[in-house]
């Protein structure tokens, strides 16, 4: 199973948009193919130190996929490769 991690914070418009993109793309894939987890820089000082300038951040299996703007086509391609 692939894990997509969305790193953001509360009250972040770009994070809300990224969440919608991730949810839409994952819904197109076979059930149980992708696990989505959300982490907040507000809850974790180490995440804040690493990512505060780049949220929202999307990781695929722990590796950086992208930040700021999430492209549905690019995410879909990465998850179906």
**Biggest sheet descriptor:** 4 strands, mixed
In round numbers, the mean pLDDT is 96
Distance between the termini: 13 Å
Number of strands: 4
Report the total helices.
3
Structural class: alpha+beta
Neighbour order of strands in the largest sheet? 2-1-3-4
Strand percentage, roughly? 25-35%
Q: List SSEs in N-to-C order.
A: EHEHEEH
Helix content: 25-40%
Shape designation? globular
Radius of gyration: 12 Å
Low-confidence stretches: none
How does this structure look, described?
- The chain has 81 residues and is of the alpha+beta class.
- 40% of the residues lie in helices and 28% in strands.
- The protein has helices at 13-28, 45-51, 72-80, and strands at 2-8, 34-40, 57-60, 63-67.
- Strands 2-1-3-4 form a four-stranded mixed β-sheet, with helices on both faces.
- The mean pLDDT is 96.
What's this, in brief?
The chain has three helices and four strands. It is α+β, with helices and mostly antiparallel strands.
Properties at a glance:
4-stranded mixed sheet; alpha+beta; 81 residues; 4 strands
Summarize the SSE layout with pairings.
Layout: E1 2-8, H1 13-28, E2 34-40, H2 45-51, E3 57-60, E4 63-67, H3 72-80
Protein name: Glutaredoxin family protein
InterPro entries: Glutaredoxin-like, Thioredoxin-like_sf
Organism: Microbacterium ureisolvens
């Amino acid at each position: 199973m692939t894990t997509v991690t969305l790193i953001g914070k509360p009250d972040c418009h770009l994070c809300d948009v990224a969440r919608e993109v991730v949810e839409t793309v994952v819904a197109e894939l076979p059930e149980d193919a992708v696990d989505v987890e959300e982490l907040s820089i507000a809850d974790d000082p180490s995440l804040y130190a690493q990512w505060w300038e780049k949220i929202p951040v999307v990781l695929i299996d722990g590796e950086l996929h992208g930040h700021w703007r999430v492209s549905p086509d690019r995410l879909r391609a990465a998850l179906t490769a």
